[in-house]
Structures are given as C-alpha cells and as structure tokens.
Amino acid sequence: MALPLAHPALAAADPELAGLVAAEERLQADTLRLIPSENYVSRAVLEASGTVLQNKYSEGYPGRRYYEGQQNIDQVERLAVARATALFGVDHANVQPYSGSPANLAVYLAFAEPGDAVMGMALPMGGHLTHGWGVSATGAWFRGVQYGVRQDTGLIDLDQVRDLALKERPKLIFCGGTALPRTIDFAAFAEIAREAGAVLVADIAHIAGLIAGGAHPSPAPHADVVSTTTHKTLRGPRGAMLMCREEHAKAVDKAVFPGLQGGPHNQTTAAIAVALHEAAQPSFRDYAHAVVANARALAEQLAARGFDLVSGGTDNHLILIDLTGKDVPGKAAAKALDRAGIVVNYNTVPYDPRKPFDPSGIRIGTPSLTSRGLGVAQMPAVADWIGRGVAAARAGDEGALTAIRAEVAELMAAFPAPGL
Ligand code: DSN
What we know:
This protein has helices at 8-13, 15-30, 43-49, 73-88, 100-111, 137-141, 158-168, 186-196, 208-212, 246-260, 266-279, 282-304, 330-339, 367-371, 379-395, 398-413, and strands spanning 32-33, 60-61, 64-65, 92-94, 117-121, 143-147, 172-175, 199-203, 225-229, 240-244, 308-309, 318-322, 342-343, 345-347, 361-365. By secondary structure, it is of the alpha/beta class. The model has no long low-confidence stretch (mean pLDDT 97). Bound molecules: D-serine.
C-alpha cells in the first residue's frame, strides 16, 4: 500500500495506521459520497484540527479557567464564539460540546429534571435518538413524547404536535432531525412551545450550513436554544455548539461544563472557528444554495425514474427514498450502491413495516458532491447510477455494479475533493 506523502511523520512512525488513512483518502476521492450528514472539510479546517492546541487543558471558559497558560487558548475560544454569534445572529454560543449527542444531553441538564416529559420527533419518522427516543438515555431518564409526520403527506403534523404538547406539557420541545427533507417551520414550533410553556430546542445539525448560507430560514428569532453539530452542511470539524438567548446563557454553559464535560477539545474549537470564518464568506452562500439546487434537481431526476420520495421531494440537502415499490430493501440497495462506488445509508421511512436494521429506505444528500463542485448538470448522471444500482441490487448483477463504479470514479476524478 502506498504511503501517504501528506503525512510523512505518521507514515514513518506508524506505517500500518498511515496506510489506513491513505486508503480512506483514496476512498473519499474515488467515490460519490451521498450521506447527507457528511461533507469534505477544507485543508484549513484539517490543519487547525491537527495543531498543538491538542496539548492543552482548559476546563472552564475564557477568563475563568482552572488551568494556567490560557493566553492563546482563550483567544481561540473567544474567536469561535464571536464568529458563531455573528453568523447565526444569536446572543450566546457555547462551542465546547464534544458532539451533537452530548450537546443535546446538556440541554436536558440545563432545563429538565429526570422523569420530566420531553417532546421530539420519533426516530423512525426522521427525528434523532437524543430527542427522547426510548433506547437513548434521553428516553430512559425522561418521559419521551414523540410526534411524527402524516402518512398521506410525509409532512410534520403540527396539529398533532400542538395536541400532544398541550396534553403532556413537556419541559422541552425539540424540532429538527436526521431525515427531514422539508423546511422546518420554527415560528410554528415556537408558538406551540409558548402555549405549552416548554423550552423550544431547534436541532439544526443537518441544516446549519444551509441556515448560515441563507438557504433555509433561521431558528434564531424563534428558538430558546439552538443545538448543532459542526461537521455536516456547516463543513467544520466533528464537534458541536449550543446557542441561545442571553437569559439562558448561564444555564447552558453550566450544563456543558462542569455539568457534563471536562476539558474542551481546543484543536476542535480552533477548527470550528476556521469553519465559521469560511461560512461567513460570500462563496459559502453560493455553496449553500447550490446544495439545495442540486438536491431539488436530483429529486426531480429520481422521481422521473419512478422512485418514491418521502414527502414527494425536498426543500433542503436531503432526499429520503422509499424503495418498497422497487422491490429491494434499503440495506440490500445501500450495500449494492456501496459496491458501485456510491455511498449512502439505509434508513427507515415513516410508517416503515420493516425493522430499523433492515428498513425500506435509503437516505441521500448533496452536501459532499456540492463541495466537490458538481452541479445540476451532473444530477441526471447521479440519478441514473442510483437507478441502475438499485436495479442491479434487485437482479444480483455484480457486473453492472462494477461498471457503475468505474463511471463514478471517472467523474469524481474531474471534481477533486477539497482537503484531500
Ligand atoms: N449520525 C447523524 C446523521 O447521520 O444524521 C445523526 O446524529
């Protein structure tokens, strides 16, 4: 296996590990990555993640640390916070959560007591584990009340949300999720939360980059707390942020540290700062709008090829395909597409009669391909490969998958991945 020239010290010290990194770089370069929660970070974000900031402990917050030697770290964190508040138009940002699940857990710690009712979208409907789903600590320690989408439209049933909220009086209401192809009506959720006396948490992990780039409405005027990861459409390192109004700043900060976490990962904070700087540039707005334009074009092309799309299409970066009519389960299709160089994930669809580990759907999205520069002109080819790949999965035609893999690699070579 060729050693990666980009990591000479790693290659010399640990060739086995370096070989795996090189193989992953090649895989990310050659394949069409359609997982909607993934992306390619810039070289600058990658470099910031690999700095000596790694070597420093800094429990506490800028100016209020439990370790000395924070002359530079404080400035790094202040920069990240200032860039987050400016970009998202919020009073306060905490950039220390290690990732999305710990960030959401901190929200529970800040605003609820064990046993309280909390409301979120059911996981099989497109929600997230940490929105009170049973197998998560948030569903075990709190009383999860779950809403969904309508079976006839695939859209969130806001009447159901209001009825449940007024009946159950949850402490928290989460909006947002992991498989929602449509715009989230933050204002409507805020009205329901107000009526029910609940704290509204907008989990914008999937769409943070679209919001930053003006391609999705912002929750800032409506939500009490905004939770997000930084590595999806926002195109930063693996990390998270909690943002809120000033009145909630103390509770949020206290919940993250010392409530839940120890020292922040300063190298990640630095990379978040870089990503936020990149997201404030005009080119990021172009990227965010291109993500949505590509998803819309791809959805149209898929529908034209007879694919059944949950909610009939998309408003954002994500498309949820129900393969029931294609007579192929989601997992078999996802694995076949993987062999064809097209990386997706199998996913439940609303009201799925199949089990979560072998569901009826696949979930795809356009952030990664957009970061590589693919545009609407390439979406017919992408839809074609998906159509042929799913047909090959049904027919067990490995030759067809191999042929698609070669075509995919040829196109991807023309669109070099950022950061690699
Ligand atoms: N793992 C994320 C996703 O893929 O949507 C959610 O946490």
